[in-house]
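Q: What structure does this chain adopt?
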Amino acid sequence: MGGVGRVAWGVACLASSLLALACGARSELDDLQDGEVDSQRPSATCSGDLACVEEGGMPEAAAASADVRADDAMPPDASSILRIAFFGEPGVYDESALMTFLQSYPAIVTRLQTIPSPITADLLGSFDIVILDQLTRTFDPGEAATFVAWLHGGGSVLSLTGYVNTPSDATLPNSLLADLPMRYASAFVGEGAAPIFITDFAVSPVTAGLRQVPFWGGHQVSILGQCDGMTQAVAFLEAAPVGAVCEHGTGRVYLWGDEWVEYTSEWTSATDAQRFWQDAIDWLAVPVGARSGAE
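A:
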């Protein structure tokens, strides 16, 4: 979303955001990244590597995740802990409900690429899922090839965009996804005085139970061809795709045209922001062919 709109919305959401739990990213790659992690972690009480919860409980929005999961089939080998890496800076508003949800999935969550460092096979091999957040640089063709090879071998990526309404919101993630037949279009869509809702969804594991997902200034997703496997537009704004998924080798790819689903202010009963993440992580967490039965 655009900068002016973000400031106005931020004032309105400030009170609720201050109540949210901050639960910082934990790094398992300090030695690989020379200590590059999110340095602004708030204090919290953590138990092992499973979760990170403020003393006295977690935010209401994040606590509701237990109810969401109770209605869903658990992924195979659910006792294992996912390894999730955010690439780039966080968005401008509080994301603590999302972080609490991910860590209670359970997952170890790490933030990288806030300071430029090479994308290597060894680095990517330390993670199951990469989430492209507010990226800070263009990636070279060698890094793009390494990234797509990791996907083909079973890695998964969720890409977000729409942070500041500049061309880099599309061009930076496109540079890392260059070897895939899906990318962000340059046109900016869904801008306005307040968030709108995406309500038009195709049938897909990543849209199960979705009715309205917040969206405030982002990009359409262009599908230029087929990935190795299933390739599908899954969400639409005025009939144009703003969400798409595909299977590449044994890996999974999900492009979403905005970042507003990250923010704690949107994790309320009036939106499906939390359900968006539940569906996305459940799908991304299982390599193609590993889930028994049809999806």
